[in-house]
Every structure is written in C-alpha cells, then in structure tokens.
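Inverse folding, one chain.
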C-alpha cells in the first residue's frame, strides 16, 4: 500500500464509528456513524501523502485518529514500528512529541488570551523540553523559521492576519522537532495568494527538516503540487491510492475520474476536448451506507455486482491501489 519501503506510518483496517443516540431522557444506542470504515494506507518517511475527497467523507477523522485525538474503533496504527493502540500514558505522551498537527482554522486554533510566544512555547513546557532563556531562544528561532519577526513574541493572535496566524500554528507544530505533521486543510481559509506562500513554506521546511506530511485538502491542483502520492476518500473509505501524476493522468476509480474532470485547466484547447463527469444524487448517510460499493448510488457505470458485494481493495498495478469491481489487476 506504500508503493515502496521505509513507511513511517502504517494504517491497517482503521475504523472510527461515532455512536448515534436517540431519546431525550433515556438515551439508547440506535446505530453508528461510520466516519472511517476499514481504511488502509502507508505514509513513507519523507514524503507527502495527499488525502482528498468531498466534505464529510472522513478525511479529518482519519488524521485525528492517527494522532489518537480520537480513539479508533478498530484497526491498527503503526508509527515508527510502534503499535499506537498498545501505547498509553507516559509512553503515548513521548510518541506524541513526534506527531503534530496543523489545524484548518487559524482563527480558532490559537488561544486569543495567550501571546504568540506562549502559544509556541506551550509544547516545550508540556513536554519539559526547554525552560527560561533556552525556551525563549527556541521560540524566536521558530518564528524566524516560519518567516515571522522574532520580536512578535509578546503580541496576541488578533494582531495578525490569517496567513500569519497559520504560520504561528506551523511554528507551534515544529517546536518539538516532529517526524510526522498532519496538515488538516491548512490553506482552505486563506486567500489564494497566501495559500501559495504557506504551501511553499511547508515544502521548504520539509526539505530542511526531513518532515513527513499527511496533507488533507479539497484543492486538487494544490494537492498535486505538494504531494508525492494521493489517496482519494469517499464516504469513509479509501477508493484509490497512487502516485500524484498517475492519478491525474490515469484515474481508474469512477469517483476519482469524476473528481479529476472537475479540476480547472487554464488551456482552452484541453477544456474543449475534455469530458466533464457530473455526478447525480447526494452522498449517502454514513450512518446507513449502501449495500455493496459505497459509491453505487452515484456511479455512472455501476453493475449488478456493485449493489451486492463490497469491492476488494487491490493493487491493480505497481503502487496503484483501487477498490472497484470494474477495475481488474494487470494480467487478469
């Protein structure tokens, strides 16, 4: 599932179900919202894996469950050879130093009552990494690293623009020298010109510090720019994983084909010849997914088997994984 060796993170059959409760006085468990349902993939050390899909498909839940901000319902998460499901207490706290997150909303993810210096220094204090002058110097170093003036340490978040606040969030994530950073749509709330600056900063930091990213986003063009490989999610499941160029030039799953046909291309000649795939209907309720393939209610090429059996997640060619009855492995 990694397309190679040297995986930093291995996710196997990961599930995260949120209970659905009914009743006002006496509540009873009537079902589950299957936010993440049997997901498997690898993240190779030093790479950026892009995770894309429609709103509500479970992308953010995958990221938070990997960090164990959400406890997984089932499945395995292996980080650097350690099974996170078997780690608790102080051991989990030590591993969390190597896993950090950049949140989607730079306005909500920073405490408005804390100065920038206190926000960035918080991880250093929590993990007892640095105190006094050492902590102060580290905070200033981190501010310089993300392109902010180190003299801003005593300012508050409301004094900064959205792009600057996201840089503060990046500096906080870098404080403990992590190996893995989960970027949860870090540019979606920023202006287009600022988005490019933040993405370029993330790429520079990756080259400089040897970081590994799980980059969650909606903007397919930006994901192609920053990612080495891409994973496509639909209704809690991974439907396709492969190299970024392969997934743009040769998407195999019908849902991926529809997504890629929607990517704007600034070339009138290509636009005239390209076939736009319009999906009809709404995304099913994750509390009551369809029988068989999750995509069968909107798939333009669905056959009888798609409504009866769930497709296997198979490597149809080297490094290219697809979950679709109509896509056969090479040589079959």
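Residues assigned per position:
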């Amino acid at each position: 599932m990694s397309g190679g060796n040297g995986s930093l993170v291995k996710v196997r059959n990961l599930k995260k179900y949120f209970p659905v409760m009914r009743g006002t006085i006496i509540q009873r468990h009537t079902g589950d919202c299957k936010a993440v349902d049997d997901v498997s993939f690898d993240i190779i050390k030093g790479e950026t894996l892009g995770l894309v899909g429609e709103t509500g498909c479970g992308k953010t839940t995958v990221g938070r469950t990997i960090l164990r901000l959400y406890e997984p319902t089932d499945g395995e998460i292996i980080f650097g050879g350690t099974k996170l499901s078997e780690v608790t207490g102080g051991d989990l706290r030590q591993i969390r130093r190597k896993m950090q997150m950049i949140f989607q909303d730079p306005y909500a993810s920073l405490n408005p009552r804390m100065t920038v210096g206190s926000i960035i220094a918080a991880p250093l204090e929590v993990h007892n990494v640095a105190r006094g002058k050492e902590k102060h110097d580290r905070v200033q170093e981190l501010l310089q690293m993300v392109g902010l003036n180190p003299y801003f340490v005593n300012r508050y978040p409301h004094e900064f623009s959205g792009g600057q606040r996201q840089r503060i969030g990046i500096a906080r994530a870098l404080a403990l020298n992590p190996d893995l950073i989960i970027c949860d749509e870090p540019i979606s709330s920023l202006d287009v010109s600022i988005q490019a600056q933040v993405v370029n900063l993330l790429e520079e930091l990756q080259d400089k510090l040897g970081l590994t990213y799980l980059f969650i986003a909606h903007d397919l063009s930006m994901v192609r720019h920053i990612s080495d490989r891409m994973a496509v999610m639909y209704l809690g499941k991974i439907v396709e994983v492969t190299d970024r160029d392969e997934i743009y030039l040769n998407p195999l799953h019908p849902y991926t084909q529809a997504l890629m046909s929607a990517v704007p291309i600034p070339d009138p000649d290509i636009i005239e010849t390209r076939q736009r795939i319009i999906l009809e209907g709404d995304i099913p309720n994750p509390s009551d997914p369809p029988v068989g393939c999750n995509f069968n209610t909107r798939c333009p090429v669905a056959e009888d088997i798609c409504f009866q059996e769930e497709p296997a997640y198979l490597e149809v060619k080297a490094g290219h994984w697809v979950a679709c009855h109509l896509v056969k492995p090479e040589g079959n």
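Residues 192-209 form the longest helix (18 residues). The radius of gyration is 21 Å.
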